[in-house]
Specification:
Helix content is about 55%, strand content about 5%. The protein is mainly alpha-helical. The chain has one domain. A two-stranded antiparallel ribbon has the order 1-2. A hairpin with a 6-residue loop joins β1 and β2. α2 crosses α3, α5 runs parallel beside α8 and α7 crosses α8.
Amino acid sequence: MSFSERGGNGFLRATINTPEPRASEWEISMILFQSPLKKSDLVLIEKKFKITTKQAASIAGVSVRAYQQWKPGTRLSLHATEHLLKIIEVYNSGMRTFDGSDRSFTAWIKSPINALGEKVPVSLMTSSKEDAELVNSELIRMEYGILS
């Protein structure tokens, strides 16, 4: 698996190399298990979203102290890798929704959103993979003009 930032449009990319064009969820889980993301990948997200160390540690599923002691090459657990990939999906949806404007998207994720129960999207998406999916769903609705 490779994880990179695409130049120009600000989109993030996580590429999973699979032997078949349409890999099953189980096959993707096995690939992630064999090659999970690393702390350095989480640090990139930490900088992109300007999240706190506490929020990054929450994504990693460890205490702040343990997270701070990790080296950049420390591998994330399968659960943390899946959570981070969901956050990357949120980022990409946000960049599409806000026409590639990192500034507008960052302002949106840091503001309480009525459709999310007046919760702040960045807090939701760093708390759990399921909450990150809620944020992603709201962005997709916005992209297609379905406002709640």
